[in-house]
Amino acid sequence: MYAGRQINRRDFLKMSGAGLAGAALLGGTACGGGGGSGSGDLIFAMGTDTSGTLQGLIDKFNKQSEGFKVTYQEMPTDTGAYFDKLRTQFQAGGGDIDVIGADVIWPAQFAANGWLLDVTDKFPKSEQSQFLPGPINSLLYDSKIYGVPWFTDAGLLYYRADLLEKSGYSDPPKTWDEMQEMAVKVAKDQKIDYGFVFQGDQYEGGVCNGLEYIWTNGGDVLDPNDPNKVVIDSPEAAAGLAIEQGIVEDGVAPQAVATYTETETDPAFLGNKAVFARNWPYMYALAGTKDYPDVKPEMIGVAPVPVTPGNGLASTLGGWNMLINAQTDMPDEAWEFVSWMTSEQAQRQRAISASLLPTRPALYQDKEIRETIPVIVEGEAALKNARSRPVSPYYSDMSLEMQEQFNGVVKGDISPEDAVSSLQDSLTQIVEAGQ
Amino acid sequence: MTTASTEKKRRGALREEFGNPERRLAYYMILPSLVIILLIAFFPIMYSVVLSFTDSTVTAFGSFVGIENYVEMFQNPDFLVGLLNTVIFTVGSVTLEFVIGLGIALAINRAFRGRGLVRAAVLVPWAFPTVISAVMWRLMCQDQIGVIDVVANKLGVISQPILSDNTLLLISCILIDTWKTTPFMALLLLAGLQTIPADVYEAARVDGANVMQRFFRITMPLLKGTILVAVLFRTLDAYRVYDLFWVFSGQQLDSLSTFVFTGVRISQLLFAQGNAASVFVFVTSFLIALVFIKVFGMQTSTEE
Amino acid sequence: MASATTTQGATGRGSINAILFYVFLVLFVLVSLFPLLWVFRMSTVTKSDLLTSPAVTLTASPVGTSYSTVFSNPDFIQALQNSVIVAGTTTVICLFFGSICAYSIARLRFRFKGSVMTIILAISFFPAVAIIAPLFIQFTAVGIINTYWAMIIPDVVFALPLTIWILVAFFRELPRDLEEAAKVDGATTLQAFRKVIVPLAAPGVFTTAILTFIHAWNEFLFANTFIFDAAHYPVTVVIPNFATTYTTDYGAQAAGAVVVTIPLVILVLIFQRRIVSGLTAGAVKG
Asked: What pTM was computed for the model?
């Protein structure tokens, strides 16, 4: 069966040739290109592994697997560039990747185009319940599931416990008002440049930050019961963005947060220039290292992102899933690899060696993990309340609109009310285009 | 379309053209380059033109929709902002580069020590990869560690971070491009200046022409050809600005090319509009070149 | 500097002018080079100094950690090698086809010369971003995606017009009588081209080679689009991506930028005169 597809593909390649771009585009979409190099190797794509532990894990898998080996194909570190490459490859017929390490915002976009293998049969509800609900939700499209959660991530509020204590605060803030008040006071008392820093740049991270303000004020982007209904134009959502804008306008955060990504957040907070920071769990491990010697781990604390009273905790879900190319020649082998990599054992090993947060709640009780990644203990509430960004086959376009509006709000160019009402229009158009 | 007789005549002319061995050889010599260009560039361009008249998406070829994409494109605020930014950038940077470049060319149009060194020093920014220089300039304009942002704020030249203000971003892009390309412009103009024989100036001086008169009556007219070529090349290059905006502004600043890139490569809904925009850039570039050739009387070097 | 006045052989007023002139020159050179000097400074401080403030960056004691980071990164070394291969091959191909084509345009008489030149130049008007999607499909179909050819081929297409344009200008400058003499002696057009024109044009061809090489060395868009694995990335793609999953390593970026600029600086220093004549050839000969 697979041999047949290979021949088809070769013939197709010969027929199209160079220059026949039109035919190739149509053909490419219709027949697809078979995955797999035919050499019995399974190709696994994932962004650069800066922890250096991924290859070891793959080697371990290869040692115990029978009949096939997994090869790691390194992709760009930058998530946007990685997505771009995958999408271009899929458009051109699938490429030779079999298993994909994918950001949580990608599955719906790939699945809607038929590029992913539906694994609903192999991954029943009973199995899914072993995983955190947020990551599972990111994999659902059209009530089918397209992969398995691999590791997770969520927005956290970092604070300088030492400085807070000096100014007479024993606990981190629970609400946005408290946070701003404390930030201003502590920054003044302790002569720190900024009260608070976050990611307000026009990029995906800016969307993650903006959504947290909306959610923690009771707003939302899409109706949870009807993913085709845009509900962002609400007083709650506007109030959330108004807080984000106010934080910059009142000088709690520097104007430059409108250009901040994670890269600028680290040196501001860990360089002793800010009292509070909103960032992902990874920043915890950087404290006290040789790049940031001034702020030691014992000086910082982690709490859930503040809320406006009356609303539940909410953090933006990040993290990665494992997906399978619909055109793979080795679906069973691919599944074997995916289940092995996402198993309790492999996740545990990766958590301990690379500080990547597991997607199985059971592992959050593991003593060794709690010792290795202290942020898990303090950030547990936030991690378990992580919410996924709108699941839509047109998420890229939604994100572009939100990036622009949220960044405009942070800069003070767009009022929160205008931002939500223009998003209501543009997102509705996008949802309609997707139907 | 053609009558039989003109058809015959044309065929005769063609036979004469290709029958002549030297002419045939000329075509053979051009053929490889032409084939490469047509195969790799021309088909994709034509394909973009076709796509711009359909409602195609990234994944599916659509049906013919006439000029709908163009109409929607002109109603899209991102496109309009991109167009405006591109025009401001092009006019601003080319004007600055030309004025400063001409000044420098006039100033160094003489023999002096260290001339080679000056030439080498100014060529370095030009040879520096644009994308990497954009990364470096962004670092230097960053609010915490960027030398330019910090110094400019201290001096009171600006009162807000450069990277979070679209006007400052656009101005910075113009200045960065000026930094990178003025030396190039100056060297082009200098080479032009050196082809003007000294005795022309001498004669004018004897006739009592002052500095200004000599500049406007002699230098400018004689330099016209060089200026037109240099300015046209720079204009067309600036008009397609992509990597500087994309990398330096962290994707905050729109240009025509970033609009095309977003449509074709990132958005799933603006694909056809992105193709329409690329055709727009292509056609308007052509018009710009045509204006230079027809209105300003630029000589293309193909004319003998 | 002082000796400048003697070369000018100037009077008192002349020497003030000369000093002003040199002050102006020094300023001009400084403005041109300042960003590069600053980047060099950024590449020689520790990451924590770099991240503190510009003042600290300026005064910190120099260290080589960023350089050991980039040189211990096998991807960076590989990328340098890839850039050389891609830019080198592009240059050779462009010169081969470009010089044949340019000779024909500059020297031979034929009817559709104007149209040919228009087609060639038209390519340089098109935004390269617009053809990456169709090109991607073509390259995948013929199986050269994610290979050096996926960079070399589009680089050649976009560099060829430049190559041809400059070479046409160079070939026009060559004296016609030598060739005519060769033809009178019984040489064919091709022999005349090979025996007379090629040696005479060598300097011009060489200049064009440098320009084409720099053009290809600096290319980013195609490489960023058509290449998927680190084994084939050129430096222009690797440097902006000196990053971990969340953050960018500024020091390593600066060090990488310095390393890729050095070959260009050397090329420019040695061949500045030729480069200038190459750049101006097309523009000045109208």
From this structure: 0.82
